Amino acid sequence: MHHDKKFAVVNPSKMCQPMGAVQALLGVKNTMPLIHGSQGCSTYMRFQLIRHFREPIEVASTSMNEKTVIYGGEFNLMKALKNITEKQSPDMIVVTSSCLTETIGDDMAGIIEKFKDANLDNELPVIIPVSTPSYVESHVEGYNRTIKALVEHLATPSVPNGKINIITGNISPADCKQVKDLLYQLNCDSIILTDTSENLDAPLTEETLSLYNEGTSIEEIEDTANSLGTISLSKHVDSAAIFLEKKFGVKSISGPLPLGFENTDQFVTSVCELGDLEIPESVEKDRGRLLDAMVDAHSYNFHRKVAIFGDPDFVSGMTRFTSELGMIPSVVCTGTESERFTEDVKLISKEKGINPVILAGGDLFDMHQAIKKAGADILIGNAYGASTAKEENIPLLRVGFPIFDRLGAQRISVLGYKGSIEFVDKITNTLLDFYYDEAGYEIVDEKTEEILREEGDEGFEEDFMSKEEI
Amino acid sequence: MEPVIETFESRKKHMCVKGEGLSIPVCDKASLPGTVTQRTCVFGGARIVLMPITDSIHLVHGPIGCAACTWDIRGSKSSREELYKKGCSTDLQEKDIVFGGEKKLFETVLELYNIYKPGAIFVYATCVSGVIGDDIKAVCKKSEDLTGCRVIPVQSEGFQDHNKTKGHWIGGDALLDYVIGTKEPEETTPFDINIVGEFNVAGDLWGIKPLLEEMGVNIISTISGDSHADEIAQAHRAKLNIVQCQKSSNYVARKMEKKYGIPFIKVNFFGLEQTTNSLREIADFFGDEEMIDRTEKIIERELMGVEDETQEYRERLEGKTVALYVGGNKAWSLVRAFEEVGMDVMMSGTKNGIKEDYERIKETVRDGTIIVDDANSTELARLLKKYKPNLLISGAKEKYISLKLGIPFCDFNHDRISAFAGFKGFVSFAKEVDASVSSPVFNLASKTLSKVSKTPKVGGDENAS
Ligand code: SF4
Question: What's the ipTM?
Fold first, then answer.
């Protein structure tokens, strides 16, 4: 049954701006994110982040309530800044607004100035406000605005540093590590905005309970004004890069997310051009290994229909990569309304000769309806896809955020040649598990089986032989 | 008096030790701004008591954020519909904030009705819908008149109160005002009851229901685990309410007593003694000889196996200590169950306790037990480090604080995987507790390879800075 749905969101495939802000801040060293709003929001976000990363995560709240809403949030925000400064002494506090404080029109920048004036004698952390109203766009934009705010407040020109700034967007800690490793192989000095690789995949020690002592430092963010260029892995988070280009002449390159073969090639090319670097043999080898993995897997993946959902650049990157593998993206869905996304996917579709249903600003209900029509053999996305996959009786390959029903979300990587290799193996094995029997034969439904049987045993014999020879 | 742990001056009185000085901690105060509170909001409180109604649509009227992190998070199981698991939102946009969201809400309700034809549509107010002043009551009325489907306003603006208990009450009010008493049962028996405050987390209800049915009790409705709106509508005809989660649901029971004259008794199906007592109390209430007989037989039969089945676990757990830091009810209802597996409850606390909750805790725990109110994450870490319990019972947000300190942890909240209620539940309870406390991985936890413990650097690091 199909229903028109224009107003309701059913099973959202996006989150709100403050969530994106927090995601960005988890990669900044010794920094406390403070959500200026009611306490519920920050607790729910923490809940979501904690069950995904399986790490303790600190997000403070100004804990507004009915009374404070009437008089404005000044008292609570001042108090919060004071308490955090005294008890946690972070290097930086980043204050993000919420739907509540945006609606009542709190002037966060003004309140922060007031706080600073009242504390002239005390040593204060850097305090940066970011406007992240939850009722505008999605978490992707919250991430974007936060990186921009950090750079706007901190970037200071001094001497050229020969580095490349990388704005990662919301990727897994493992992917952050993949990108760093690739840059290391390329001999490229970089500043990662922001580096979650250690903070969100930490060893079992008590130290992880205090504020993060790993991640991007304030000095590094200051130094972004002196870099050779900025590469925004996700096109939707490039505002900081554009700012750096306009203000300090730091060249900006937007995307694509180095996911799969062609996109990683493009990333490596961008890095080498910006940094005037040679491609080392080790990178060529990894590239070759990815190709090898793709060739090994090709017959299992060929023409399998795939539905993909998640953040816009992840989905468009995955659309390209699965096409490279010979699969057919049939439905691609992102919760964020974005022209850029739609254009990207259209371009890929033309190039690859595919024709997926494109949902930009769609929810999982829309996606499910589209899958019913267009069909899919496998679904790629976060844990919220589980019920759709179950109903359609197809496997769900979990990538993205949040993943709370399986372990190791922080260690899932799909970026760079190496991450892509991991992905090829994983998707192919998932298909093998689901569509092939224990001996590696494709499981066919009864009807097809009958036809095959009618064709005689000869074919079977031959098949069997060739299998044995392998 | 020495403070329980170091913290803000104003927070010190939120912790105490039974038998020394303060008899119960200061509680029910707003969290300090700037701390990492473990509390949720009034909307969350309301949503949590209503969401287990499985045949209903739960529509959050607000920006996407309120719904995005809260849909499908309560591990309530359903034996029938899956509708309650859908995450529905009006996804308010900037223009709705400026011009009001009532029209959008109305259209959304109609749309959802047309797609799903649910048993009811619950419409939750959030901070923003409250601030912009949307009249959700009027919209609900209008759409109910149009569709004939129950459309129920839940006035749960998140910021109303620092305590989500208020949200539980608001959720309860929605049922009292719009659902209970709106339908007559086809048949009634002298033994009709409602199970109030049982949300069927991990299937707890299914450990209790068969016992009650075998006793000869007729369950009209569960409020609200695994229930349908239509069943709750008939709840006013019960002869007795039994209240499991007293933290969230005493309120509803009291109001039903006032409005419909239904008496209620507090029950507790966690632990053997508590389960036994609860069943007996129900039978005694009805005073029916046959039922009392049957109940005794059930208890005898059920208890028989349990001793053997739990022996292995009890041996390993004997003398181990446990700290409880939970939403409310479990701060007292689990104490006996832990004692029955041989463990010692050395700390008990809640995130949202009110005075009556702490009285309750105080009655239950032994002298010397630490009682804590609304510990923020730093305080919790300090408590764990200082008192080193063998196990922490808490929710998902506290889990990794505990684990990173090398302290075993059990989630008895959203992510709980097995049912703990009733006799069979007790066996699973002992098993799961044992699985955490006795796992060898925690013996390895504090060991480092080299004398100086350093976190190893990854490949790119030397290069990155
Ligand atoms: S905006 Fe208000 S109602 Fe929504 S989650 Fe935050 S605190 Fe709760």
Answer: 0.89
Q: What whole-number distance in Å separates Cα of residue A80 and Cα of residue A315?
A: 38
Strand partners, B372: B15, B349
Measured in whole angstroms, the distance separating CA A12 from the mean position of its chain's CA atoms is 16
B126, closest residue in chain A (CA to CA): A100
CATH code of the domain made up of A17-255: 3.40.50.1980
For ligand 1, atom 6, name the residue with the nearest CA: A41
CA of A434 to the centre of ligand 1 (A): 41
Read off the tokens for A170.
Answer: 């919301």
The mean pLDDT of chain A is 91
Q: How far is CA B285 from CA A272, B191, B282, in A?
A: 81, 10, 5
Structure token digits, residue B226:
């695994």
Residue A192 at interface with chain B, using a CB cutoff of 8 Å: yes
Residue nearest to atom 1 of ligand 1 (CA): B127
B contact test, residue of A68, A100, A211 with most B CBs within 10 A:
A100
**Which CATH class, in words, describes the domain spanning B192-301?**
alpha beta
Q: How far is CA B422 from the centre of its chain?
A: 17
pLDDT confidence of residue B379: 85
Report the alpha-carbon distance of residue A61 to residue A82 in Å, rounded: 13
CATH 3.40.50.1980 domain locations along chain B: 9-30+303-450, 192-301
Do the Cβ atoms of A69 and B159 come within 8 Å?
Answer: yes
Token look-up 């988070």 returns A237
Q: Inspect the interface and report whether the beta carbons of A18 and B65 lie closer than 8 Å.
A: yes
Question: For residue A131, how many other CB atoms are within 10 A of its CB?
Answer: 17
Q: Is residue A25 predicted with pLDDT exceeding 70?
A: yes
B443 touches chain A (CB under 8 A): no
> What SS3 class is residue B395?
coil
- Are A20 and A132 in contact, with CB atoms under 8 Å apart? yes
Strand partners, B350: B326, B373
Q: If you compute the radius of gyration of chain A from its CA atoms, what whole number of angstroms results?
A: 24
Q: Which residue of B has its CA nearest to A391?
A: B82
Residue B280 neighbours by CB distance under 10 Å: 14
Residue A462 has pLDDT above 80, yes or no: no
Element containing residue B311 per DSSP (H, E): helix B289-317
Residues from chain A contacting residue B35 (CB–CB below 8 Å): 60-61, 63, 83, 87
Chain-centroid distance, C-alpha A288: 26
> pLDDT tens for residues B207-224?
999 999 999 999 999 999
**B310 contacts B426 by C-beta, under 8 angstroms:** yes
Q: What distance in Å separates the CA atoms of residue B410 and residue B439, rounded to the nearest whole number?
A: 12
CATH entry, A284-435, from 3.40.50.720, 3.40.47.10, 3.40.710.10, 3.40.50.1980: 3.40.50.1980
- Provide the pLDDT for residue B188: 93
Task: Check pLDDT > 60 for residue A192.
Answer: yes
Q: Quick one: how many helices (H) and strands (E) in chain B?
A: 20, 14
Are A360 and A341 within 8 A, CB to CB? yes
- Residue-wise pLDDT tens digits, A208-226: 777 888 999 999 999 999 9
Query: Using 50, 70 and 90 to split pLDDT, how confident is the model at A134?
Result: confident
CB of B450 within 8 Å of a chain A CB? The answer is no
C-alpha distances (whole Å) from B286 to each of A183, B129, B220, B280 are 75, 46, 16, 10
* Contacting residues for B425 by C-beta, under 8 A, at least 6 apart: B204, B207, B269, B270, B418, B419
Contact (Cβ atoms closer than 8 angstroms) between residue A304 and residue A428: no
Residue ranges in chain B whose pLDDT is less than 70: 1-3, 21-23, 28, 38, 73-74, 413-415, 445-448, 450-465
Chain B, nearest residue to A219 by Cα: B465
Residue B99 C-alpha to ligand 1 middle, in angstroms?
Answer: 20
**Angle A293-A295-A299 (CA atoms, 0-180°, nearest 5)?**
115
